[in-house]
Amino acid sequence: MKYIAKNIALSESKDSIVVAIFENGTLSKNAQILDDLTDGAITKLVQSNEVKGIQGEILTLRHLPNYTAQRVFVVGCGKKSEITERQYKILMAKLIAEVKKTQTVELVNYLTEIEIKDRDLSWNIRFAIEMIEESLYRFDTCKSKKSDESAVLNSVIFDIEEKQQSQAEQAIKQAQSIALGVSLAKDVANLPPNICTPVYLAEQAKALAKKSPLIKTTIIGEKQMAELGMTSYLAVSQGSCHEAQMSIIEYRNHPNPNAKPIVLVGKGLTFDAGGISLKPGEGMDEMKYDMCGAASVYGVMNAIAELQLPLNIIGILAGCENLPDGNAYRPGDIITTMKGLTVEVLNTDAEGRLVLCDALTYVERFDPELVVDIATLTGACVVALGAHNSGLISSDETLAEDLLVASKETTDKAWRLPLSEEYQEQLKSNFADLANIGGRWGGAITAGAFLANFTDKYRWAHLDIAGTAWKQGAEKGATGRPVSLLTQFLINQAK
Ligand code: BES
Ligand code: MN
Ligand code: ZN
């Protein structure tokens, strides 16, 4: 999709435009200009109760008198200056659904004049682009017949004032880079686990280095993991015939090449059957999404390379598969992590933390400025927070706050969970330094507490995206979260 920001008069469009009207039929500035141009066409519709301006109402008008554009979408925005970001996004999605039904190729958007509560023009544009891309996303790679309802829409023009030009262009650039990152993350995540294997993930990581001269990718396979002492990571993988591969995606663009990097570590279980502690069959297909942490890191790395952020950032995709097998690791096994701590495996389905703990130790070598891991780590997090907020755990107040700020800015929501010492008690083992599960209560937190044991060398935060990374049911599909949150966090770090 082409996005353009410019000052454009209503009379210039030959194709389609969209204007806002408010509750009680109050016209927005541009709706008023249109009304004047068209002998009161909009006013007449208001008078005949054809349009009321209530939230989410959309009317498609064709061939208005004295007017060149073929279509006018009139969008109801409710009470003036009271539209929330959520209402705005819903309205955008509805608008695109209407636009898709028509032959609109170029849409001139005058909704830039509506005020979203506590948001400026940049966010008006960014949320619009986010929703347009979201509405147009299709995943039919594995269908023999591709969907033919692909929209003919190919460009959207945002009407702005001249003095807003550079602000608007920056908003478009950021939105497009994030939207592309989101869509790349969705694509890898939606692929089936027989195609998206750990090797496939590593290939995507290598492809990033082909695309951007600022990126260098290194792959670590099982042989090197063994040499490095990543026994815990390998234990999880040993039941699978797919080789575990960890991708290290190094993006260097800080003015000081030796500046400490920000490290993102993504859980990349391309399938999690639970291992010997086998999961129930129902819904098990969804465990192809257990690599969504890695998918989001992949999407973010693409976004920051597009934006050429002046930072050093390292993305890790911790690819692996967890299956039951004659050679699989078992409950009762005691493994020695790369850090040297021993872990008693009480449940082979708590595998994410066993992969991540070695990845977190591995990244010590980069002397990170900070590390954020992103993982579909616990069902308990979904019980606690549902599908709307990712779980955030960190003992670093500033880092936690910075992530929460980015999450609020992008509406890619996160909620902080506590991490106090007591939770470590639940991870005690009679036979090893740690148990890999912490009992029935506070499962999302004890998982985070487990990881905390491996993060003493740097500032660290953990995002549990088990509830937010994909949707279930009729709309089953990856969401691309939290690419938006993380990219915004990095944009803010670059300021
Ligand atoms: N990948 C799962 C977490 C998960 C479960 C994400 C359901 C989304 C939906 C993780 O590896 C897992 O199985 N965790 C266990 C931990 C338990 C054994 C302590 C869980 O949450 O049940
Ligand atoms: Mn599991
Ligand atoms: Zn898992």
UniProtKB/TrEMBL annotation:
<dbReference type="InterPro" id="IPR023042">
    <property type="entry name" value="Peptidase_M17_leu_NH2_pept"/>
</dbReference>
<dbReference type="InterPro" id="IPR000819">
    <property type="entry name" value="Peptidase_M17_C"/>
</dbReference>
<feature type="binding site">
    <location>
        <position position="272"/>
    </location>
    <ligand>
        <name>Mn(2+) 1</name>
    </ligand>
</feature>
<keyword id="KW-0963">Cytoplasm</keyword>
<protein>
    <recommendedName>
        <fullName>Probable cytosol aminopeptidase</fullName>
        <ecNumber>3.4.11.1</ecNumber>
        <ecNumber>3.4.11.10</ecNumber>
    </recommendedName>
</protein>
<keyword id="KW-0378">Hydrolase</keyword>
<dbReference type="InterPro" id="IPR011356">
    <property type="entry name" value="Leucine_aapep/pepB"/>
</dbReference>
<feature type="binding site">
    <location>
        <position position="351"/>
    </location>
    <ligand>
        <name>Mn(2+) 2</name>
    </ligand>
</feature>
<feature type="binding site">
    <location>
        <position position="272"/>
    </location>
    <ligand>
        <name>Mn(2+) 2</name>
    </ligand>
</feature>
<dbReference type="InterPro" id="IPR008283">
    <property type="entry name" value="Peptidase_M17_N"/>
</dbReference>
<keyword id="KW-0479">Metal-binding</keyword>
<feature type="active site">
    <location>
        <position position="353"/>
    </location>
</feature>
<comment type="function">
    <text>Presumably involved in the processing and regular turnover of intracellular proteins. Catalyzes the removal of unsubstituted N-terminal amino acids from various peptides.</text>
</comment>
<keyword id="KW-0645">Protease</keyword>
<feature type="binding site">
    <location>
        <position position="351"/>
    </location>
    <ligand>
        <name>Mn(2+) 1</name>
    </ligand>
</feature>
<feature type="domain" description="Cytosol aminopeptidase">
    <location>
        <begin position="347"/>
        <end position="354"/>
    </location>
</feature>
<feature type="binding site">
    <location>
        <position position="267"/>
    </location>
    <ligand>
        <name>Mn(2+) 2</name>
    </ligand>
</feature>
<comment type="similarity">
    <text>Belongs to the peptidase M17 family.</text>
</comment>
<dbReference type="Pfam" id="PF02789">
    <property type="entry name" value="Peptidase_M17_N"/>
</dbReference>
<dbReference type="GO" id="GO:0070006">
    <property type="term" value="F:metalloaminopeptidase activity"/>
</dbReference>
<feature type="binding site">
    <location>
        <position position="290"/>
    </location>
    <ligand>
        <name>Mn(2+) 2</name>
    </ligand>
</feature>
<dbReference type="Pfam" id="PF00883">
    <property type="entry name" value="Peptidase_M17"/>
</dbReference>
<dbReference type="GO" id="GO:0030145">
    <property type="term" value="F:manganese ion binding"/>
</dbReference>
<dbReference type="GO" id="GO:0006508">
    <property type="term" value="P:proteolysis"/>
</dbReference>
<feature type="active site">
    <location>
        <position position="279"/>
    </location>
</feature>
<dbReference type="GO" id="GO:0005737">
    <property type="term" value="C:cytoplasm"/>
</dbReference>
<dbReference type="InterPro" id="IPR043472">
    <property type="entry name" value="Macro_dom-like"/>
</dbReference>
<keyword id="KW-0464">Manganese</keyword>
<keyword id="KW-0031">Aminopeptidase</keyword>
<feature type="binding site">
    <location>
        <position position="349"/>
    </location>
    <ligand>
        <name>Mn(2+) 1</name>
    </ligand>
</feature>
